[in-house]
Design a protein that fits this description.
4 copies of one chain form a homotetramer. By secondary structure, chain A is an alpha+beta fold. The first copy, chain A, has 2 helices and 4 strands. In chain A, a hairpin with a 2-residue loop joins strand 2 and strand 3. In chain A, helix 1 packs antiparallel against helix 2. The first copy, chain A, is elongated and about 45 Å long. Chains A and B meet through helix 2 and strand 4 of A and helix 2 and strand 4 of B.
């Protein structure tokens, strides 16, 4: 099933700046095969729902592996059966 | 990896009342094997991250199968490596 | 206009534990005059929309005043005109 | 206090398409005096926290006035005291 999503990873306890972690998130998303659009409050992606969920699992694992002790991700997932959901279709 | 999560499914276009859909979400979560705590703005769950993500995929598929044409899910996922995250541990 | 809401304050950079900040959030909400229900992923409140928004402003100001340098709040606000929204009415 | 925010308004019960409501949200935000950046999962804004919260109240009132019976808004608010938060500063 095709989906669009917004993903924001918030590392808790690495310090006031989380720029390195956000950069790593975008690198992982860019190499995921998903369509990726970054913005100031997260990253929008488009692709197979299962693939998106798998990448979210990878993000948690990879950021922990790089030293983040606590992570909260805020995710919006959208699916629809009347037409294929796309990021392009959600722009005005 | 163990995780806690909040899941809220919002069906778009089924009408002003979404009670049937919310009931179905809670049924699916209750039969998922995850620890489940419902509240007024979603359902909190605790379990394996991979299992939680798989159940989220099921929720989208099962609600579409029951007639919802458009679904947005709002999800918070929390993981940590300094101790095992639990719903009980997040209560004051 | 009456509303229900979920409020979660995430302090960035105070350390892996944010228990003191969460405790302070609940204290402020409990003294706000709003109906308050805490849970593992935030606090649900019920009351006048304007009052809720004012309390959210207070939360940011008061947590900064106590030493949090960076705050992200995740908020869900619900209003409806067909009936009065209540936390009780959103429980199954 | 200066803030950045993400605002997504979800009208429940107006139908599967919510394009008219989203268009109205962007019009209201564009005339708010805030800095506004639309994307596929919401609209990012920058300005005074109090002004942002006031505009969120307006959005609920104006969309109800135009016929939406039920509204959920999903909001992220960010403030920091170490430097002025800006949308530009949150881009990689």
């Amino acid at each position: 099933m095709q989906a669009t999503a917004e993903i924001q990873m918030v590392p808790i306890g690495v310090g006031v700046s989380v720029r390195n972690e956000v950069r790593r998130v975008v690198e992982i998303l860019n190499s995921s095969g998903l369509i990726v659009e970054t913005h100031a409050s997260g990253t929008n992606v488009e692709g197979e729902l299962r693939r998106i969920l798998r990448v979210i699992e990878d993000l948690h694992e990879m950021l922990h592996a790089q030293g983040s002790m606590r992570l909260i991700s805020f995710i919006k997932l959208e699916t629809r059966t009347d037409k294929t959901p796309t990021l392009a279709g959600k722009r005005l």
